[in-house]
Design a protein that fits this description.
- The chain has one helix and two strands.
- By secondary structure, it is of the alpha+beta class.
């Protein structure tokens, strides 16, 4: 018997996704279900033949939507981390810039005071 398996990423939360391998065909039926022979109109085989394509397309669509949701969540998490890192880098570089500027101002003031003292001494 041929077996088809579909794999996709299942969305658990914004930071957690898991890979799912699910048997796609043949369709498994629960073993504890009691079957009653109903009279079906149209015949049961025609109903099943019309439902199987819908089941397959719905299952594939579900897998695609789940995978796309996981991709968007991963991108959102990545962009949040990049934004946070950028904020930290801006704070660090602002601090370094302010220290360098203060150092430059202090050196210029020392040059001015040193020049004034030299003029006073002569």
């Amino acid at each position: 018997m041929t077996r088809f398996t579909i794999s996709y990423t299942h969305f658990k939360s914004a930071v957690k996704q898991e890979i799912v391998f699910e048997d796609f065909l043949p369709i498994k039926t629960p073993e504890d279900v009691e079957y009653i022979d109903y009279i079906c109109e149209p015949e049961r085989i025609k109903i099943v033949e019309s439902l199987i394509p819908r089941y397959i397309s719905t299952k594939i669509y579900y897998a695609l939507v789940e995978s796309q949701t996981c991709e968007h969540a991963a991108r959102m998490s990545s962009m949040e981390n990049a934004n946070s890192n950028c904020g930290e880098m801006v704070k660090y570089l602002t601090l370094v810039y302010n220290k360098r500027r203060q150092e430059s101002i202090t050196n210029e003031m020392m040059d001015i005071v040193g020049g004034a003292e030299a003029l006073r001494g002569t």
